[in-house]
Amino acid sequence: MRAHQNGTISTDVSNFLLNCFVRSPVWQRWLSLPLSLLFLLAMGANATLLITIRLEAALHQPMYYLLSLLSLLDIVLCLTVIPKVLAIFWFDLRSISFSACFLQMYIMNCFQAMESCTFMVMAYDRYVAICHPLRYPSIITDQFVVKAAIFILARNIFMTVPIPILSARLYYCGKNVIENCICANMFVSRLSCDDVTINRIYQFAAGWTLLGSDLVLIFLSYIFILRAVLRLKAEGAVAKALSTCGSHFILILFLSTILLVFVLTHVAKKQVSPDVPVLLNVLHHVIPAALNPIVYGVRTQEIKQGIQRLLKKGL
């Protein structure tokens, strides 16, 4: 119990309820099948990629270590979000404890920022491979990958810690229904009786500092790559380079487009159904995870050959 200056008394809440498409129960039924299939695809494809890179000695190279890191991040993000969403769809298990909610909030923010940073390092890897091929072995080494991994972990772990801490320190009184399928920071914070201005400012600043800077550096890398590719004279070299980097760039563009649409639906929330940003929030955690191993892995000849060799050994 907590008394307020206006004489009213509010009761503390002990957990949250995730209001996941309750206004549109048809959405729950129709979404559960494709969502579960995407989840299985994401888990299976990323696990296959990790096993292949681990068991194939020919793939023990910096570029494939970065792919392994990306797959690990995708698996954690999927496991953090999708099982709970499916539990809501199938068994109406909408309740989530305070600690579980803030843990989910932290993992989502931290691992998405790590994924963005990994994309940036991978774009740099492609930039060096195409623009400075002779120097590639001396620049992109195992030591470089270790340093990059430490940077990815340290930067994003410490920069995203304040997000759940700022939300957890707020006082939550009467309302405990989150109008989302996941514990998104601002959806949770707006339930409190306290001022959430600091939460909004930090979420905005951290988002643009981490994701914004990564996207700018990724786009710059691909601009330099495109410029270098167009100068290539060797027959077939342009097509090969564009094939390698084009699919990567399209995936990153797709990822940034989802984020842009999500921001725009929030800005124009009066013109769109409130379920649209919620749907985008959920899909953002599973579609990239399902596409990443296919675009980055299966389209790579060495990984395809590695998978084929492992399948033959299994048979």
From TrEMBL:
Residues that span the membrane, as ranges: 31-53, 65-91, 103-124, 144-166, 205-229, 241-264, 276-298
Domain of life of the source: Eukaryota
InterPro entries recorded: GPCR_Rhodpsn, GPCR_Rhodpsn_7TM, Olfact_rcpt, OR51/52/56-like
Cross-referenced SMART domains: 7TM_GPCR_Srsx
Topology term for the membrane: Multi-pass membrane protein
Keywords for the protein's UniProt record, in alphabetical order: G-protein coupled receptor, Membrane, Olfaction, Receptor, Sensory transduction, Transducer, Transmembrane, Transmembrane helix
GO molecular function annotation: G protein-coupled receptor activity; olfactory receptor activity
Localization in the cell: Membrane
GO cellular component: plasma membrane
GO biological processes: cellular response to lipid
Domain G-protein coupled receptors family 1 profile per the UniProt entry, residue ranges: 45-296
A Pfam family reported for this protein in Swiss-Prot or TrEMBL: 7tm_4
Gene3D superfamilies referenced in this protein's UniProt entry, alphabetically: Rhodopsin 7-helix transmembrane proteins (1.20.1070.10)
PANTHER family assigned to the protein according to its UniProt record, in alphabetical order: OLFACTORY RECEPTOR 56A3, OLFACTORY RECEPTOR 56B1-RELATED
Identification of the protein by name: G-protein coupled receptors family 1 profile domain-containing protein
Species this protein is from: Otolemur garnettii
